Amino acid sequence: MSKLKVMSAQNSEAGSVELPQQFSEPVRQDLIMRAVLAIQAANRQPYGGYGDAGMRHSTKLSRRRRDYKTSYGYGISRVPRKIMNRRGRRMGWVGALSPGTVGGRRAHPPKPYADWSQKVNTLENRKAIRCALSATVDAQLVAARGHKIPKVFPFIIDDAFESMQKTADLEAALVKIGFADELVRAGVTRIRAGRGKTRGRKHKSPTSILFVVSKDATPLVKAASNLSGTDVIAVHRVNALLLAPGTHAGRLTLYTKGAIERLAKEGLFLQSHKGASGEKKVAVKAAPAEKKAAAPKSAKPAVKKAPAKKN
After folding, report:
1. Does a structural domain hold residue 286?
2. Is the bond preceding residue 154 a cis peptide, omega within 30 degrees?
3. Does residue 103 form part of some domain?
4. Across all residues in the chain, what is the average pLDDT?
5. CB 205 within 8 A of CB 228
6. Could you give the angle at which helices 29-42 and 122-136 cross, rounded to 10 degrees?
7. 176: closest CA among 39, 12, 66, 51?
8. Pairing of strands 13-18, 3-7
9. How many Cα atoms sit within 13 Å of 210 on the Cβ side?
10. Domains in the chain, number
11. How many whole angstroms separate alpha carbon 174 and alpha carbon 242?
12. CB–CB of 127/24 below 8 Å?
C-alpha cells in the first residue's frame, strides 16, 4: 500500500497516512458504469398520462341492421363514435376513443407504474465502488476528467476541514493547497442544450470537488454548500455515482484523515464486509416449519349395531 501526505489548511504537511486495501483495486470502467446506471435508473421519477385519458366517452354503437343507434348501412367505417346530436333515428356523431381519432387515447402511452430500477449484485457493487475509489487517487485519471489539480496531488486533508463552518474559510484553504484554478473552472456555467432550458434547468455547472468525511452532519456540509459543483458525503455513504458522475471515473476527491482511518478500521466495501451502509437488506422469509406427523390413533374395535326391531 502507498502512503499519502496529510495536508493542513495552511498548506503544510501534517503527517502521512497509509491507504487501505480498498484503493488497490484495478480500475474497471465496465463495473463502474453498471453501478452508476443502476443508481440513475433507481432515481428516475415515474411518469405517464391519466389512465382514463381519451376513454371518457360513451361510444357504444350497434353493428346490426335496423337496430337503434346502428352504424350499419350508412357507408361509414366501424370506428367508435360518440353521438353529438340526433334527429329521430339519424345520429350526428364524431369518431372518438380509438387512437386514430381526434381526442382519442394513445396507442401505447408511458405507464406510470413502470419499474425502471435495475438490480446489481451486492459484491459487484462493492467492487465497483473500490474501482471508483482507486480512480480518485490516480492523478492522470483525475486530470483526464478535466479537473485542475496541483502538482503534489493526490494527498489527504487534515480533519480540521470537517469543522469549518464558513464558505470563505473553506475557499481560502482550498486556494492555499492549490485548487484555485479548480474553483474558477467550477464557477463557469453554460446554458443547457435542449428543452431543459424551459423546464427550470437552464444552466449547467461543472462537477467539482467531493469531500469525503468521517461522519454525517459535519459543519463542512454547510460551508461547502455555497461552492459550485462540490459535494460532502460521509465515507460509509459513498457510492459509485458520487465517485464517478456520468460513469466517468476519476472525480477530484479529497478525503479527510478520519475518513481514511474509518475506511480501514471498518473494512467498508470489502468483499468480506457485513452490512455495508447504503446496501439494502433483503428480508428473507423463513420457510414454514414442517408439521410433525401425528401419532396414529389406536384403532377402536368395530361395534356391531343390533338390527332394528320391526313392529
Report:
1. no
2. yes
3. no
4. 90
5. yes
6. 110
7. 12
8. antiparallel
9. 25
10. 1
11. 20
12. no
Report the candidate in 197, 204, 196 with the shortest Cα–Cα distance to residue 245: 204
Whether 210 contacts 255, CB under 8 Å: no
C-alpha grid cell, residue 228: 459550485
d(CA 155, CA 307): 105
Residues of the chain falling short of pLDDT 70: 1, 275-311
**Separation between Cα atoms, residue 152 and residue 6, nearest integer Å:** 11
Looking from the CA of 84 toward its CB, the CA atoms found within 13 Å total 5
At residue 188, the pLDDT reads 95
* Boundaries of domain holding 172: 3-43+118-188+204-266
| Distance (Å, whole) CA 148 – CA 179 | 7
Measure Cα distances from 203 to 195, 196, 199, 208, 210 in Å.
12, 9, 11, 16, 21
Q: What are phi and psi of 284, to 5 degrees?
A: -95, 120
Residue labelled with grid coordinates 413502470: 114
pLDDT, one tens digit per residue, over 214-240 is 999 999 999 999 999 999 999 999 999
Helix 180-187, helix 167-176: angle, nearest 10: 130
**Residue 124 maps to which CATH number?**
3.40.1370.10
CA distance 214 to 261: 8
Q: What is the 8-class DSSP label of residue 62?
A: B
The one-letter code for the residue type at 193 is A
Q: C-alpha grid cell for residue 247?
A: 460513469
Q: Which amino acid is at 127?
A: K
Look at residues 225, 185, 191, 222 and name the one whose alpha carbon lies nearest to residue 206.
185
Residue 209 placed within a domain: yes
Write the DSSP assignment of 80-138 as a string of letters. -EEEEEEETTEEEEEE-SSTTSTT---SSPPPTT--------HHHHHHHHHHHHHHHT-
Listed residue (207, 279, 277, 272) closest to 235, CA to CA: 277
